[in-house]
UniProtKB/TrEMBL annotation, chain A:
Residue ranges annotated for the 4Fe-4S His(Cys)3-ligated-type domain, each copy included: 85-124
Keyword presence, Translocase: yes
Protein name according to UniProt: Bidirectional hydrogenase complex protein HoxU
Source organism: Candidatus Sulfurimonas baltica
Cofactor(s) essential for the protein: [2Fe-2S] cluster; [4Fe-4S] cluster
Similarity comment: Belongs to the complex I 75 kDa subunit family.
Location relative to the cell: Membrane
Signal peptide stretch: none
Gene: hoxU
Keyword annotations: 2Fe-2S, 4Fe-4S, Homeobox, Iron, Iron-sulfur, Membrane, Metal-binding, NAD, Repeat, Translocase
Ranges of residues in domain 2Fe-2S ferredoxin-type: 4-85
TrEMBL record, chain B:
Coiled coil, from the record: none
Keyword field contains GTP-binding: no
Domain NADH:ubiquinone oxidoreductase-like 20kDa subunit: 14-161
Pfam family, one: Oxidored_q6
SUPFAM superfamilies registered for this protein in UniProt: HydA/Nqo6-like
Protein name in UniProt: NADP oxidoreductase
Keywords attached to this entry: Oxidoreductase
Molecular function in Gene Ontology: iron-sulfur cluster binding; oxidoreductase activity
Keyword NAD: no
Upper classification of the organism: Bacteria, Pseudomonadati, Campylobacterota, Epsilonproteobacteria, Campylobacterales
Organism listed in the record: Candidatus Sulfurimonas baltica
Length: 239, 179
């Protein structure tokens, strides 16, 4: 097969003329040009899945809102990243994420270092726009170093992707659908008995919330070091 | 100029948010020039009054009594301010929703006691627990939300001043969930 030639495309983001490689996503080009689009499930270097929908943008001429992390750029398109309509929808998305599980920030080991919490502050969401569901899940504290609390999981799948794409273990996956969905180890076994997990801890460092954390760490210590993972990905690329 | 009639109430919370209110220190004197506290754990009023300008509510709704109170508050107040995470998200009070009311009562009145003469849950004098602890806005309309656990005194001061002066305050600069 003859590969498509990579070309340069020119278009606009928030009325700023920008250029990007024809195979780039809107989010990538926005980042290169210092234009901020909020994200949650996105992590540089991992595949993009468009799971959280925080990065939705408007395209002039279309009524649909599209996730900028998976949308490829098009010549002459006009992207809007920050309209009041987008902010309204992002507030609703965050509300639904907060309401689905039990994010009691005041007793969370990630309090103050949580990406979900900071998104709420950045966008000015001070209460959920939908009623809380409070579905209860068992906490898995079987691993000697780490804990998984599904009650705080936002199903961003960063952990699943880092384990599969960077560590190469693919010890994690998702079981179930919708509100019952949860991250599992191997065939839904306790973490300690997972045969594929290498205990590398990458999943813990990329988890944006307090769903995965180090055992015994206090809220001031449990600052995620996701740069370790992104640096590793970069170093491998440069080889 | 007549003073603004302010009430404060403590529903299912730990009183931490009311403690933060007192933490405003000397700024309380400034506020006292502008407001009359007509009902509060700080003053000895038995009945929730009518014609209140602003009611500040700490805590979530956990019992049938809480629910009755918040409806009365809504009827008698021009504005309601939800103070702290319990009032806004359910917070600690709502952690029991993960297990259910029945399980919590059983733990408290049977599993962890040496002695329970009647062999029943108390039903007289104590209010009945709701099936689910809910934040205030799931029962009534709320005008202002000021999160935090507890809400920092500076945030309470800025917000109250803002309300008195009829000006908008950017709460996200002052506090957030869990702060
Ligand atoms: S510790 Fe490493 S191998 Fe184990 S689940 Fe997490 S990322 Fe995968
Ligand atoms: S455990 Fe953490 S990283 Fe994994 S899906 Fe849940 S929130 Fe995302
Ligand atoms: S928000 Fe925190 S400090 Fe305020 S009443 Fe609830 S638990 Fe107490």
């Amino acid at each position: 097969m003859i590969k498509d030639k990579v070309r340069v495309k020119t278009f606009k983001i928030d009325d700023v003329a920008v250029t990007g490689r024809s195979d780039s996503t809107i989010l990538e080009v926005a980042k290169e040009h210092g234009i901020h689009i909020p994200t949650l499930c996105y992590l540089e270097g991992l595949s993009c899945v468009g799971a959280c929908r925080m990065c939705i943008v408007e395209i002039k001429g279309s009524s649909k809102l599209i996730p900028s992390c998976t949308a490829k750029i098009k010549e002459d398109m006009e992207v809007i990243t920050n309209s009041s309509r987008l902010i309204k929808h992002r507030k609703m998305i965050l509300s639904m994420i907060f309401a689905e599980r039990t994010h009691t920030c005041s007793v969370c080991v990630s309090n103050g270092h949580c990406e979900l919490q900071s998104q709420a502050t950045d966008i000015g969401l001070e209460h959920s726009l939908v009623p809380y569901i409070h579905k209860g899940f068992d906490v898995d504290a079987s691993h000697k170093e780490y804990v998984y609390d599904p009650n705080r999981c936002i199903l961003c799948t960063r952990c699943v992707r880092v384990c599969s794409e960077v560590e190469g273990a693919h010890a994690l996956d998702i079981l179930g659908r919708g509100i019952s969905a949860k991250i599992i180890h191997d065939m839904d076994e306790p973490w300690s008995t997972s045969e594929s997990c290498t205990s590398c801890g990458k999943c813990v460092q990329v988890c944006p919330t307090g769903a995965l954390f180090e055992k015994g760490a206090s809220a001031t210590e449990m600052v995620k070091k996701k740069s370790i993972v992104t640096n590793l990905i970069q170093a491998r690329k440069n080889k | 100029m007549s003073k603004v009639r302010v009430a404060t109430i403590w529903l299912d919370g730990c009183s931490g948010c009311h403690m933060s209110f007192l933490d405003m220190d000397e700024r309380l004197i400034e506020l006292a020039e502008l407001i009359d506290v007509v009902y509060s754990p700080y003053v000895d009023a038995k009945e929730f009054p009518t014609n209140v300008d602003l009611t500040i509510v700490e805590g979530a709704l956990s019992t049938d009594h809480d629910l009755k109170m918040i409806k009365k508050i809504r009827k008698n107040s021009k504005k309601i301010l939800a103070l702290g995470d319990c009032a806004i998200t359910g917070n600690i009070s709502a952690l029991k929703n993960l297990f259910g009311t029945e399980a919590v009562l059983k733990k408290g009145y049977f599993d962890l006691v040496d002695f329970n003469e009647s062999g029943e849950y108390p039903s007289k004098m104590v209010p009945k627990l709701l099936d689910k602890v809910i934040p205030l806005n799931e029962a009534v309309d709320i005008d202002f939300f000021v999160p935090g656990c507890p809400t920092p005194a500076d945030a309470i001061y800025e917000v109250i001043k803002g309300i008195l002066e009829n000006r908008e305050v950017d709460i996200s600069k002052l506090t957030r969930f869990g702060k």
